[in-house]
Fold:
Amino acid sequence: MFQRHLHRHDDVNLMMSALGNDPQCLPVLIAWGSALRRDMASALREVIATGAWQNDVCVRRAAAHWREEPRFHVFLDHGLEKRRNRGPKYEHLNTALLTFPETRAALYRVSAAECPQHCRTKTGTFAEDRHVDDYREALFGWYAAIQHAHACVVRAAHWFAETQPPDSRRPEAFIDWMTGNRRRHSSNTVQETELAARGALREIILMMQAWSPHTFEAIDVAFQRAEGERASHAWGGGFEPAGRPEVQAAAEALASVLGPQERQQVRAVIDEIETDDEFRDMDLAKDSTLPCTSDRHHTYGADPGEREDCAKARGRVYEEASQPWSEGVDHAAGAARLARFLLGPRDDRIQTALAAARASVARQTTERAPQVWHDNAELLREAREAAGLDLHAAAGHLGIKPATLQRFEQATGKLPGRPVSLNYLQLLTLTYSQATRTPPACIPQAISQPVISLPTTL
Structure:
């Protein structure tokens, strides 16, 4: 079923089989695993930001079958597997995203709110399907990479222990070998070298932990024994028995080649990983100050302020979805409506706002709108120009030609239609309310009030 997404998976396996027992296997695997993690986090963030997941075949089929809104968990389940050796699991994905708080926040928001979490930038649909393919390819590549983690550690440790220091390929310390650094010939500073070593340690330990949840315990036991203490495994009766022998072999191999200071570095990295767990996702989702990191904000014509507006809008949607349960109130449906109202391109948000405001105006008031516009045409035109609303942009929002709008603003010819007049008056009110300015006094309160009561984060 996933054959079209397996070429990165096969690339990883082909490279590992080609390297075989070559000592270069571990640095190559670390570099590849790091790149795949970044690609997967970036692609998943773009899938959520562009809304591309809603066009997935399985999502649309499930939504049509149950006659409901598209559900994100359907998209996520389509690429994940419950069985261990048949494909990537939720545990593998969660571990891969452990050091990418922006993607984890976006993932938690769209999963918890069960509604779109689009970007607010005005961009096209370029390469949206490509984001889905990139995500699944990187996901299966990561799944292939973590299968090799423990075996590569064992092979590299054995080579390091058997090779004598005069060998030009052998560095002074095993962690230097993992990073590809040579302290004697490196031009990097000590700080850069330590950061590279810490990053490489984190990558390989994350890969080992992703494949088997027993990694941390096995490393702790092996290190205690290497230091002369008595320690034993307490594997427990968990639901993930696989991976114990390979974890134990890798932990013992590491303990045999790492010195006391290097073992302490490994322990520090493990502590850092354990404290940076997924339970912080709820706090991240609530954080409206976290700027949106989607690449859509870096495209041509994107407003720099949209990154912060994205965070505020998504925070409001999540806040609505996470309200306490109350009888007769569907917070998930309310969050989905709010998401459609607050997120997406600016033109769509304006059209949605005008439609919501128009529905709140009584028919009797709507009939007065053409005469209000005709009697105050010059004043309203000056107000539009003062608000920075372009003639062509205003005509586009109203669905009429610029020449027609210009004629109406000059109060020449017949009166404009009631829907166009009401939309024009409410569009001016919306523009002024977003700029925190007072709308023209000639617009009746019955027309302007439905707009002013709308969320200001449009």
